[in-house]
Amino acid sequence: MPKRKAHGQRNEPPSDDAADPMTPEHAVELIYRSFRSNQHWLPSRALAKCLAVPYQRLLVVAAAKDDLSNLVWTSVLVLVYCATHLVDFHESWYEAADASAAWLRQQQHFLDQREDLVRNACSLLNVRYAEQLLTTLFAVTGEGHEEEGAGADDDDAELLSLGWQRCFLDEPPYTAYYWNMETNLSTWRHPLETAQLERELQEQKQQRRDLLARVLPQRLPINRDVMPPADTPIALSRVRQAILLRVVL
Q: Which domain holds residue 212?
C-alpha cells in the first residue's frame, strides 16, 4: 500500500540541477552557445545542469549574477569541465577555452586566487588533475618570471632547431612530452637535458682516458731481459729445489 502523506505535505518537482546529466554533444553545444563576449560564462541553471552541480554553487555573489567574481568562478568551472570531461570534443571548445583563459589572466581576482579557484573547481567536479591544469590551461607568467619566460622561448627555439617539439597529452593528466619531427621518436625526458647528460658522460670518459695517459707512463718499468724464460731448465730446476727444501724442512 502506498504511504500516506503527512497533512500539508506537498510533492516537490525535481530541480533542474537534479535532472539527468547532459550528453557530451549537448554540453558542448550549450557551452559554446552561452559563451559571452568571447570572454566568459555567466552563471545559469542550464550551465549548472551541464556541469552537474547545484546552481547555487555557481554563485559567489548571489545578489548580482554578473558580478565579476561569479564570471571568473563560472568560467574556471567550465574550463575545468571541458578539459576533463569533454576531451573527445576538444576541437569544438578549444578556441573558446583559449579566449576565456586569456581573459582570466587579465583579471586581478583570478591572478590573486588562481590556485584556490582551480583546486576548488576540481574538488567540486571530482577532478584529480589540479596540478596539471595549473601548469597548462591555467598557467600564467607573473612578476619576476620574465627572464624565465624568455629562457623558455630560447629553449623552444633550440628544440625546434634540433627537430624536437614540445607537446602535451590530449587527455588528463596533460603531461608534457617531446616529439622529434625528423625521427618520429617521443620521449618524456627533455632532449636538451639528455644531450647535456651525454656530453657530461663523454667528458668523464675523456677525463679518465687523460688521467690514465698521464699515470701509466709513471709506473716503474720492469726489465724483463734479466729474467730467464719461464720454460727453461734452469727455471724449472730452481722451482724443484724450492719444493724439495720446503718438504725437507
A: 143-218
| 94 phi/psi in degrees, rounded to 5 | -65, -30
On whether the CB atoms of residues 98 and 82 are closer than 8 A, the answer is no
Strand order in 164-168's β-sheet? 164-168, 176-180, 186-187
| pLDDT value, residue 103 | 94
DSSP for 218-242, written as a single string: GSPP--GGGSPPTTSHHHHHHHHHH
| Alpha-helical runs (H) found in 14-173 | 24-33, 45-51, 68-85, 90-104, 108-124, 130-135, 146-161
pTM: 0.53
Q: Considering only residues 234 and 212, tell me which one the structure prediction assigns the higher pLDDT.
A: 212
Query: Among 109, 149, 116, 107, which Cα is nearest to 134's?
Result: 116
Q: What is the pLDDT of residues 62-102, one digit of tens each?
A: 888 889 999 999 999 999 999 989 988 888 888 898 899 99
The set of cell numbers assigned to 168 is 602535451
Mean pLDDT in residue range 129-137: 87
CA atoms within 13 A on the CB side of 32: 14
Which CATH number characterizes residue 183's domain? 2.20.70
Contacts of 67 (CB under 8 A, 6+ apart): 60, 61
Domain shared by 95 and 127, yes or no: yes
User: CA-to-CA distance for 53 and 32, rounded, in angstroms?
Assistant: 19
Residue 129 vs residues 76, 189, 199, 219: alpha-carbon distances, Å: 14, 21, 36, 62
